[in-house]
Amino acid sequence: KPPLARASSACSLPSGPRRESPASVAEICPGRAQGREDGQEHFSHEEELIDVLHTSKTSKERNRAVKLLKQFDPIPKYEHDDEGQKSKMQPKKYDYLLGYVCWRCDKVKQSNYKVLWNTSKGCKQICHGCYSQLAEREEVAQMRAANQKAGIIPKGFGLGLTGVGDTQR
Fold first, then answer.
1. What is the chain written as a DSSP string?
2. Pairing between strand 122-126 and 108-119?
3. 121-147 b/e with 16+ CB inside 10 Å = b?
4. Which of 9, 52, 97, 148 is the most buried (most CB within 10 A)?
C-alpha cells in the first residue's frame, strides 16, 4: 500500500462543494474496501468517510477518518439559526472522545462535548462552539429587546441595534 500523502501548508486543495478523498476507505480500515467491476478499489467520498467515522471500532480508524475529513471544504448551514434557542438544545458531556461532523458548521470535530439540537427538520448534532454562538445570539436578542423597551438604546435607525438583518449572513 502506498503511504498516505501528507498535505503541506503551501499546497492548496481544489475548492468546490464536494470532491473525492485522496485516500481510500481500505487505507483507513482494510476490511471495508468496496470493489468495482474492473478490480480496482473504489475511492471514498466524504459520506463514506463520515460512515467510517461513525462506525469505527478503534481510535486509529477514527483518527485517520478525521484527518481525511479535515481536507474537505466545510459548507456551513445557517438556515435554522432562527430556531437556535437554548430550550431546543441539549449539550452533553462524555467521558470519552467523540468523532463527528457538526451539522451547522460542517466541520469534523473530536471532542468530549456534543449538542443535540431539535429543529423543524429533525434532531441535528452540532458542536459546542456552534451551541455557544447560538446561545449568545439568543442572549443578545433578549438584552437588545429589554434595552429598547427601557429606552436605553434607540429603536431603528439601522445602527445594528434593531436586530434587522441579523438573521442573514
1. -PPPPPPPSS--PPPSS----SS-HHHH-GGG--B-TTSPBPPP-HHHHHHHHHH--SHHHHHHHHHHHTTSPP----TTGGG--GGGEEEEEEEEEEEEE-TTT--EEEEEEEEEEEETTEEEEE-HHHHHHHHHHHHHHHHHHHHHHHTSS-S-TTSS-S-TTTT--
2. antiparallel
3. eeebbbbbbbbebbbebeeeeeebeee
4. 52
Give the three cell numbers for residue 93: 458531556
Distance CA 12, CA 78 (A): 26
pLDDT digits 0-9 by tens, 42-95: 334 788 888 888 888 888 999 999 999 999 899 999 999 999 899 999 999 999
Model confidence, pTM: 0.65
Pairing of strands 89-101, 108-119: antiparallel
Cell numbers given for 118: 431539535
Backbone dihedral angles phi then psi of residue 146, each to the nearest 5 degrees: -65, -40
